[in-house]
Amino acid sequence: MEAFTLDSPAGGIFAARWRPVGESTRGQPIVLLHDSLGCVSLWRDFPERLAAATGREVIAYDRLGYGRSAPFPGTQPGSFIADEPRGAFATLLEQLGLKGFVALGHSVGGGMAVEVAGAYPGACQALITVSAQAFVEPRTLTGIREAEQALVEPGGLSRLAKYHGDKAEWALRSWVDNWHSEAFRDWTLDAALARVACPTLAIHGEHDEYGSLEQPWRISRLTPGPQAPAILPCGHVPHRECPERLTALVVDFLADTP
Q: Could you state a single Gene Ontology molecular function term (predicted)?
């Protein structure tokens, strides 16, 4: 793994890249977009596994306010998902000189990956969403509240601080408060999904705590396809719960992608 920091007007953006060992890379790099409480470290060994299996470079970064990136300047706005293509992601593209890429996002990062694919139709060669939310449903809000309760108990926030340092409480409040805000009541990805022009694979866990199977089905129906989503026998975090099967799905899907 090669770790580095990108410069942005709001502060440093931590990023990392993995390349296949002992062979040259092939195809466009895969850029990973993390979830609401995620960061580069919480992808664990998935980026390395993915690089080895696909032969592609894999790049991940911490959004401002998360992981080893600088704090977010203020309160995270309700438009944060739609803003990502013009935020840290744009900094990544510019400073790494990426002309093409595959976008892979987990959970809210999947929503951001959809926005990215629509914003860069000429550069995004393929889109993969993993456990993404395409609209707000009761299961989403209930799951967030249950996670919040566990994290505000004694010692709970320290688990977040391990990855986000003194930004941990900001990250938690940004997640909980945005999804339960009035602005998010009728939020959907429908308009962004309609802008996606590249092949798309929606992956979802059968037992996902934050979204029913209607989530990946909506993504599949409103994008170029394949028509059916891929359902894994796991919960919300396939890259931790069933990484081998997730990796195999990505490898098969990208087999004919530049």
A: hydrolase activity
